[in-house]
From TrEMBL:
<protein>
    <recommendedName>
        <fullName>F-box domain-containing protein</fullName>
    </recommendedName>
</protein>
<dbReference type="Pfam" id="PF12937">
    <property type="entry name" value="F-box-like"/>
</dbReference>
<feature type="domain" description="F-box">
    <location>
        <begin position="13"/>
        <end position="58"/>
    </location>
</feature>
<dbReference type="InterPro" id="IPR001810">
    <property type="entry name" value="F-box_dom"/>
</dbReference>
<dbReference type="InterPro" id="IPR032675">
    <property type="entry name" value="LRR_dom_sf"/>
</dbReference>
<dbReference type="InterPro" id="IPR036047">
    <property type="entry name" value="F-box-like_dom_sf"/>
</dbReference>
Length: 303
């Protein structure tokens, strides 16, 4: 919403209740308009500033360094730190190092959405401490990272109750063991592990253990794994026992219609017979196994 108010109304801004000001600002969509609001008077500044800091999109190292300096200066003031207002952050900084990440993350305790693009120099030495500083995180996206199992275990220990969306893309130092740690994250609804290789142990029993750990997640609605040469058979949904069917009969959803991946955007007029057996995930709506050795069985999506 572009902000435009008549001049006669602007003369009475000092008399507006704070609740009205807050309501006005919550309907301002453009960042430039929020900046304008922050300059009207002290009351507008007080309520507009947290909205301006709610989402941070950082795409170069110099900006990131300035931000850390500003957060540190703000935290030394008697008033609330600006970092308290930050709810989501997307960091695209290929020169980010461990000290930089910790210097930032310790000032944003209310962060619930974190995206790290190309954090090639971030290691377990720093990342395993991140959950201690941002205990409320619900969404995590990491692309091109060198984090290992220690970081995954730290996530599971501290975020198991609230982390519901996890994407690990091109994190090539991970292995199938990550699924054993993620089994504790029972709040997960969306899990995407793509191009992470997971090659430290490709024995079929290891992959089966990984599949069982994924299937133990009770609230999954979307599961995606893309892995070159993947033997996907263990990840295919399995049929529950008769006893499980009787116990969960009221919770199970009907298996959605299944289409091949190529037809996902333009499905054929006659649906293809769904894969059998039924999945054990009661809420599953999206299931994708890509780049596997058995494409006729794996490259499918449920609609």
């Amino acid at each position: 919403m572009s902000l435009f108010l008549p001049f006669s109304f602007m003369n009475h801004f000092d008399h507006l209740p704070s609740e009205v000001i807050s309501l006005i600002l919550n309907h301002v969509d453009e960042t430039c308009d929020l900046y304008t609001c922050a300059l009207i008077n002290k009351t507008f500044y007080k309520y507009a500033t947290p909205l301006l800091w709610e989402h941070l999109d950082l795409n170069d190292h110099r900006t990131f360094s300035y931000l850390i300096d500003g957060l540190e200066a703000s935290s030394s003031l008697q008033s609330n730190s600006l970092g308290e207002s930050v709810r989501s952050a997307s960091i695209q900084d290929g020169f980010l190092i461990d000290d930089d990440l910790l210097a930032f993350i310790k000032h944003v305790p209310q962060l619930n959405d974190l995206s790290l693009h190309d954090p090639a120099f971030i290691s377990d030495d720093s990342f395993e401490h991140v959950p201690l500083y941002v205990p409320h995180l619900t969404r995590l996206y990491i692309r091109y990272s060198n984090i290992k199992q220690l970081s995954i275990e730290a996530m599971s220990r501290h975020w198991y109750r609230q982390l519901n969306h996890l994407e690990l893309i091109y994190c090539t130092d991970l292995s199938y063991e990550l699924f054993s740690a993620l089994r504790q994250c029972t709040a997960l609804t969306s899990l995407d592990i793509s191009y992470c290789r997971l090659e430290s142990n490709k024995a079929i029993d290891t992959i089966q253990d990984a599949a069982r750990n994924v299937m133990a997640l009770p609230n999954i609605t979307s599961f995606r794994i893309i892995h070159i040469g993947l033997n996907c058979t263990p990840f295919l949904p399995i049929t529950p026992t008769v006893q499980q069917q009787q116990q969960q009969q009221q919770e199970w959803r009907i298996l959605p219609t299944l289409f091949p991946d190529d037809y996902f955007d333009d499905p054929p007029s006659t649906p293809i017979t769904p894969l059998q057996p039924q999945p054990i995930w009661p809420y599953l709506t999206h299931f994708y196994l890509g780049s596997c050795r058995e494409p006729d069985r794996c490259q499918w999506r449920w609609r």
